[in-house]
Amino acid sequence: MELVTLAHRTQGLILATGNPKRVKQISDVAKPDIRFVNRNPGSGTRLWLDAELTKLKVSTDQINGYEHGVNTHSDSASAIQSGKADAALGLQAAAYQHGLDFLPLFEERYDLVLPRENIKTLVPLFDYLQTSNFRRELSELTGYSSTHSGEQISLL
To answer: Closest Cα partner for 101 from 38, 43, 17?
Structure first.
C-alpha cells in the first residue's frame, strides 16, 4: 500500500455567526441549550469527536443532537446557517463558505491510500499535486495547507 498526502486541513467547531451561545471549547457542546449536529458514524470527524469526548469524560447522552448525523461538512454548516443547530464539528472551509464563525481545534492530514500496483496509473495525479497551480488553488481554500501535498509514504 502507498499513502499520498493530499493536504492538511483545519477542523474545529462551526458556530452561528457571532457565536451567540458563547461556545469556547468542545465540552461546551454538552450544555443543555446547545443544539449540536454530528457527522455520520464512521467518519473521521465523528471518530475524533468520540475520542475527545471520552478523554474529557463527556457523555454523548449530554449532547442535544449527538444522534443526528449528516454526511458532509457542508451539511453541518447548512444546519447551523439555517438555525437548525448551534454547533458542529467540521472544516474551517465549510464554516467560511457559509459565513459562519469557527473555533479551530486541530489540523488533520487528508490522505489517499491505494494499492502499490496502482501507482503507475496515478502518476499524472501525483505530478499535478506537485505543481504550483495546485498548491496555489488549495491554499486559497480557507483552512487548507499544501505543505506536504504529493508526499508518498510506503506502508508495509
So the answer is: 17
| Segment (H or E) for 45 | helix 44-56
- Please write the tens of the pLDDT for every residue from 75-122: 999 999 999 999 999 999 999 999 999 999 999 998 888 888 887 888
Backbone angles phi, psi at 88, to 5 degrees: -155, 155
How many CB atoms lie under 10 A from the CB of residue 99?
Answer: 9
Domain boundaries, the chain: 10-107, 110-154
Q: Strand 36-39 relative to strand 87-91: parallel, antiparallel, unpaired? A: parallel
CATH number of 10-107: 3.40.190.10
Rounded Cα distance between 98 and 9, Å, is 17
